[in-house]
Amino acid sequence: MSETTTDTRSSGPFIAAIDQGTTSSRCIVFDRDGRIVSVDQKEHEQIFPRPGWVEHDAAEIWDNVQEVVSGALDKAGITAEDIKALGITNQRETTLLWEKATGRPVHNAIVWQDTRTDALCRELGRNVGQDRFRRETGLPLASYFAGPKIRWLLDNVEGLRERAERGEILFGTMDSWVIWNLTGGPDGGVHVTDVTNASRTLLMNLHTLQWDERILHSMDIPAAVLPEIRSSAEVYGTAGGKLAGVPVASALGDQQAALFGQTCFSEGEAKSTYGTGTFLLMNTGERAVNSYHGLITTVGYRIGDDKPVYALEGSIAVTGSLVQWMRDQMGLIKSAAEIETLASSVQDNGGAYFVPAFSGLFAPYWRSDARGVIAGLTRYVTRAHIARAVLEATAWQTREIVDAMQKDSQVELTALKVDGGMTSNNLLMQTISDVIDAPVVRPMVAETTCLGAAYAAGLAVGFWPDTDALRANWRRAAEWTPRMDAAVRDREYKNWLKAVERTMGWIEEEQ
Amino acid sequence: MPGPIQSLERAAAILRLLAGGERRLGLSDVASTLGLAKGTAHGILRTLQQEGFVEQDPASGRYQLGAELLRLGNSYLDVHELRARALVWTDDLARSSGESVYLGVLHQHGVLIVHHVFRPDDSRQVLEVGAMHPLHSSALGKVLAAYDPVAHSEALEAERTAFTDRTVTDAGEFEKVLQLTRARGWGSDLEETWEGVASVAAPVHDRRRMPVGAVGVTGAVERVCLDGEIRPGLVAAVRDAARAVSRDLGATRF
Prior knowledge:
The structure holds two protein chains of two kinds.
Chain A: E1 14-20, E2 24-30, E3 36-43, E4 55-56, H1 58-76, E5 83-90, E6 96-99, E7 109-110, H2 118-125, H3 134-137, H4 146-156, H5 160-165, E8 169-172, H6 174-182, E9 192-194, H7 195-198, E10 204-205, E11 210-211, H8 213-219, E12 228-230, E13 233-238, E14 247-253, H9 254-261, E15 270-274, E16 278-283, E17 296-301, E18 309-316, H10 320-328, H11 338-344, E19 353-355, E20 373-375, H12 383-409, E21 416-419, H13 426-436, E22 440-443, H14 448-460, H15 467-473, E23 476-480, H16 486-501
Parallel strand pairs in A: 1-5, 5-14, 9-12, 15-21, 21-22
Antiparallel strand pairs in A: 1-2, 2-3, 4-7, 6-8, 10-11, 13-14, 15-16, 16-18, 17-18, 19-20, 22-23
Chain B: H1 6-19, H2 27-34, H3 38-50, E1 54-56, E2 63-65, H4 67-74, H5 79-97, E3 100-107, E4 110-117, E5 132-133, H6 139-147, H7 149-157, H8 171-184, E6 187-190, E7 197-205, E8 211-220, H9 221-224, E9 225-226, E10 229-230, H10 232-248
Antiparallel strand pairs in B: 1-2, 3-4, 3-8, 4-5, 6-7, 7-8, 9-10
């Protein structure tokens, strides 16, 4: 061990990362070891104009971004001169159109969760259905993605289409919006996006990494509004304002940034972020693997002129939010952490299984007619058994996605790297390891999303020489290894699948 | 076996009375409802008031249940809440110290490890959450015994096994160790539990300044110590982390 044991303060230079997220914007300053030096964060308003609609005020977001950058620098007691590069990570798919000449948004940003384009997506599927553009884009036609949201804005904001065709309007996801403003806005701002964000628009061809003209034509979106697609780690331009002179050197969608921050640089490495929902991404190397099991094919990252690295992605809609539901709606626990106390008071689930298909089943089933079920109830079952079933639900859903990934990629998962708030739940982490039958590993820095953006920016400016140097920064904070008997695992999985079956077909009007 | 204690029975009756029906009662209401002499009722109410179980409205002089009673019902700090609050600080402590970090609470005459962060090298390590460490010889245990009266009496009553030549087993000597721990605000274990292993720990307090746990680092004595003492920088890092967790639990700065 080196003599740095007592050194708790870091000295520069540093890398800064902006995380423009769904509920807040944050800025974190990192040192060369990938340690956090300072953090600043500010929430923005969630606007709900109608049921199912979610919007953000992009001007408020840009103000907040400037504020948190300033805050993080002040807290660290440093200036722009100490920052070698700035990285951006962002909520994915959230869509904004703004005026090129003034920088004024023409409408609130339409957030990824917004479902207003449901009907439009069905219409765009024509006789083929939701897989119409899957071969080119890796995505199903679903309301999350940016393309249909652009189309909705062009159709619904008066005069916008004509202005867009005249080249007066710019489109961007939040990475583009932040970079354009950082690099000057109406005064010479750079209009770019990175491959990971572009891969969530339904407009980019995964293989050429360019906008797909045929799809643009099908969706009736003028190419003039689109940003240039660049790699995830290169210098896009130079920032002004508080960060004057700092190279803006990376952009990655938040889940891809977490993959990068977890240093999943080799084929078969995967990370899972356990928050309100859960996102699992597996590096599939230079292959864009088609999914036949309900996953999404996406770009993992691309460093400068290197070949792009692809990923398979599966998401679980309800994980942390199920624990919140137990607390807020059921009142069975007082705090989220208490779910573990309650669940630990019994040895098993007492025969109960909880499938939280609150808004249908997502990957790998994609059944919108499903609704939540608690199965296997008897007089014996207590609230502690239900608490256990709640945690097991997250574990089994992880297992279903891992299984789908292994089938699609033919690559065996060797270990699962985890991050997010729920990693403080020891019983949950052990249960996940038990049911996926592989080690679950938590890294020492919880802020893997910002760290990923910082890493990519640092690589672009030579602050770190290569991905091996980043791997050397990665530290294991905890590891859970499988302890469950194979026979028990098989029996429980079978029961879980039976419970899943019982959720389907509850809503009869659909289809 | 002695019979029930009359004044405690009466105190319980008064608390029940204040908990039901009207929320505030005057002295004469209390006395007449329970058939007590006014002087007796007043004495019990005064005592309950001193303990915080009863409060007197300054304007009307009427009595009501006190805040302490509510706290009693909610005082138990969930260990998983403690872990969730400690997570970032313990990660940072492991990173800055280069050693493994443990968070422990008092449980069944010992220290229950509720959180463990690996030493940040690439060596193979096993998660020790759920393991028990001894109260009388580990740094975590000494800190708990020094600050938590329940842990203190448990450590004194228990058999203090000599794990190594350095384990302090004599009751008087052990008290001196605890005094030193309190005086300097941290505890240490220099090969007193495991040969070749040293550790240092500091107390975690909640918003009521109650000691709810201890956080510490553990490692090979060659790395953790310098000239037979815990490295001062390591002590500072552990105390900083303990203070940060306490702050997150709502404890005031001290």
